[in-house]
Amino acid sequence: MKKIGICSDHTGVDYKARLISYLLGKGYEVVNFGTDSTQSCDYPDFAHPLADAVEAGEVDAGIALCGTGNGMALALNHHRGIRAGLAWNTEVARLVKEHNNANVLVLPARFVSYRSAVLMVRAWLTAEFAGGRHQRRIDKIVQP
To answer: How many CA atoms lie within 13 A of 43 on its CB side?
Structure first.
């Protein structure tokens, strides 16, 4: 995974800017889907373009931030090809990749420190999908 899409609403914009710098420093290519303002905005306006880019293969995976993370997760998971996992600690961030093969990590900017956000991103980026029984469960998510 080398090309990461990232988005936030106004509550996650500071963490997003800092995470972009962190990711660039680690050698990732980053595509910013906005917002870049602290002005109140609507998270779906940024979640949907990120989800479209992940589905189209324009980015390898995504990271999204909003106040609780729930709004972003709900909007992202409306896309058939998205498995957005909301994490609030490093173990959950690792498990959403290992067990759910999450292609988007969602973070609750109002409820975690920036240091925790970085640790969660690192855990998620370095985790590997376990496959096996977890693949069977993922297959059941996308049934028609």
So the answer is: 23
How many of the other CB atoms lie within 10 Å of CB of 7?
A: 30
Show the domain range for 45: 3-141
- Burial class, 79, CB count within 10 angstroms (exposed 0-12 / middle 13-18 / buried 19+): middle
Q: How many domains does the chain have?
A: 1
Distance of CA 83 to the CA centre of its chain: 9
Q: Whole-prediction pTM value? A: 0.96
Look up 66 and say whether it is catalytic. Answer: yes
Please confirm, yes or no, whether 99 is among the known catalytic residues.
yes
Of 41, 66, 79, 134, the catalytic one is: 66
Please tell me which residue in 48, 79, 99, 134 is annotated as part of the active site: 99
Check pLDDT > 70 for residue 144: no
Q: What is the CATH number of the domain that holds 103?
A: 3.40.1400.10
Tokens of residue 66, six digits: 């909003």
pLDDT digits (tens, 9 = 90+) for 109-140: 999 999 999 999 999 999 999 999 999 999 88
111 vs 88: CA distance, rounded Å = 8
